[in-house]
Amino acid sequence: MRYAVGIDLGGTRIKGALVDGRGNLVTAAKTATAAAQGVEVVIERIRRLIAELLLSVPKGGTVVGVGLAVPGVIDMPSGTVLFLPNLPGGWSDVPLARLVGDHFGLPTHLLNDARAATLGEKRYGSGRNSRNMVCLTLGTGIGGGIIINDELYFGSEGTAGEVGHQTVELHGPPCNCGNEGCAEALASGPALAALAVKAVMQGATTKIRDLAEGDLNRITPKLVSQAAALGDPVALGIIRKVGGYIGTAIANLVAVLNPDMVVVGGGVAQAGPALFQAIEETVASRVHVAKGGRGNVVIVPAGLGEDAGVAGAAAWALERAGDSRS
Question: Domain range holding 196?
Fold first, then answer.
């Protein structure tokens, strides 16, 4: 049996797994990123995590490579990190694939973390039966990826799939990317929480205030979802509004790409039925170019949860080694 190590580098945690060719996570491990301590410390933590996972390779198994999912801009051919916006200090032109790969003598490949999650869902998750798929990961930001004819689509410069940076409200709020009215600025986790904080500050009668015990700093997307599950009209309205923005973004993608499936994952996607109902209604109302209006596209929740990134990173390494897909 051939295996790969998948690593998902996050702002606070580094997650890793030893993954076999069928997508089974044989062993999983994680460690704190310790990003504030600098690039060298983070790289050493990645190495230690990989070393720990390599100890769990079953007898007779062969590790064919390492996949590294990173949250930022990379140069894939050279395996170089160009910019990581959520990790402090020094992440400019860092040859991460070489620094990790040479240490273990293993082929090592970089992939953007959202693209890794997309590949994980395609190979082993909700998108296994899809040939043309779009994935959205809704969290602190909104990332994603595109699958065309069973393959990740990267575009001319490797950045295709930035689904969160399409405009869904003309002259909307500024986005960190420099645009205004992006889906990320209107429907990410922080944007959802900000809508709830605004409602509480304006004196709305809502369970959000009660659950937060009056502390605005405790208002999170999870707390808003809890209030919505209790039937709170304000929380439900916020989730429907955010779902409308996400639905608009998906409608654009459906009209342009005509996928057979859209997979929605990430923390915000846990908001429940109200979110997906708003998404479905918005897509149905906005897409009229395919057969039957929106065509045969299905919108489904992600299936791998927090494991999508490590599974996708490992799948990327396995595919680069020429392993067959299953």
Answer: 128-303
